[in-house]
Amino acid sequence: xxxxxxxxxxxxxxxxxxVLVVTxxxxxxxxxxxxxxxxxxxGQLGFTGRIEATLExxxxxxVDQRRANLGRLLWFDTIGGLNNDNTCAGCHSxxxxxxxxxxxxxxxxxxxxxxxxxxxLSMPEASFPIPPGFDALSKAEQVRxxxxxxxxxxxEAVRN
Length: 160
What we know:
Layout: H1 4-44, H2 55-59, H3 65-75, H4 88-91, E1 92-93, E2 99-100, H5 123-127, H6 139-159
Antiparallel strand pairs: 1-2
């Protein structure tokens, strides 16, 4: 005869397994329901997932693929940067729907990475040092500090 501990352990394991199976089925049903709701709403708003297929129709003209490719290349080319070290994509990343990935501008002397891991000097930092502990400040405090730096830069530019 097996010890009662073995039987209790077996019952516990089977019970936990059943609960996990039921929970996963319930979560999958909730997930499927949410997917269906989202798909329906996107359909109501005209989102088909095929926006590129209608581009020429919406523009009312043909897209020259050579020019489109030139635009893509220039978007990522540093030739347009102040010190040949920044690109449009440096801030306006495709990983963020071409929106800005930074809470504050990172203009020059950057690390050449596009997206959220981009670091470098912002324009005020190029002229004025950022104090130790700047990263520990709240975003509002950082913005106020940088606005004051920009004001100083502007005043110096006017004087000169």
